[in-house]
């Protein structure tokens, strides 16, 4: 609108110069005054014509409005011919973080045990370009949309999600489930006006007494896990010892089964051939097993 008003003003100035200039100046300067007036008028026309063309950049959507009326057809990326008297509100449809600049929103909430916690939360969201005209008509520009929809939806959604969680779930090392529930709750509050892409839970703070209890509980759980691991090691070693004993017993059984009288006699007969010269062999009266003794002796 400002550019078209400037164009009209330039055209009026040119018309004034064209009309008044020749009458007030010297006759020899009348031609120059007319030429100057036409120049201003032509520049104003060019300025007005340029206002009929608008370019919507990549990642943006435009909302056209004129005399209090909004065109509900959003202007997509590219060049458009529009009413030169109309105004265009441009909004980003790219993914944006809220709060902007890598900041966080500190939100107080209560868990299912009615314990107060303080959470630092940030979200990633994007505007739906198809809803841009409706959002602009009801809420205004992009800044108003963030304050009216994004901020309120994030605060209420986070509180609703935390209210269904216990303090242990909130302080769990794996907070993906909590963040997912927050995303669903925020999206439910925002409706189809924005798309919530991701929720980031940066930090969680609880009263000192609660933190101490949780830390003690986590420490005890780690001790129990360590003790359970040591017990499993002992049990595994016991199983290995049992299996080793079973192997020894089986070997002894096999050996015992093979030690027949005939085998023992054969084995001792074999050993006789290895005795040194001059050895004396004692044969007992019972058992049938010969006794051998080396007494040294000749060659």
Question: Would you mind describing this structure in some detail?
Answer:
By secondary structure, the chain is α+β, with helices and mostly antiparallel strands. It folds into three domains: 2-91, no CATH class; 96-211, Band 7 domain (Tetrahydropterin Synthase, Chain A), CATH 3.30.479; 261-293, no CATH class. Helix content is 52%, strand content 21%. The protein has helices at residues 2-24, 30-50, 132-139, 142-162, 167-170, 176-190, 208-258, 261-272; strands at 53-56, 60-66, 69-70, 78-81, 87-92, 96-98, 105-110, 116-127, 194-205, 280-282, 291-293. The strands form four sheets. Strands 6, 7, 8 and 9 form a four-stranded antiparallel sheet that branches. Strand 2 and strand 3 form a beta hairpin. Helix 1 packs antiparallel against helix 2 and helix 4 (142-162) packs across helix 6 (176-190). The longest helix has 51 residues, at 208-258. The chain is elongated, with a radius of gyration of 48 Å. It starts with a helix and ends in a 6-residue tail after the last strand.
Task: Just name the CATH architecture of the largest domain.
Answer: 2-Layer Sandwich
How many structural domains? 3
CATH class of the largest domain: Alpha Beta
Q: How would you spell out the order of helices and strands?
A: HHEEEEEEEEHHHHEHHEE
CATH H level, superfamily name of the largest domain: Band 7 domain
Query: Which parts are unreliable, with pLDDT below 50 for 5 consecutive residues or more?
Result: none
> What proportion of the residues form beta strands (DSSP E)?
15-25%
Give the C-alpha Rg: 48 Å
CATH fold-level assignment of the largest domain: Tetrahydropterin Synthase, Chain A
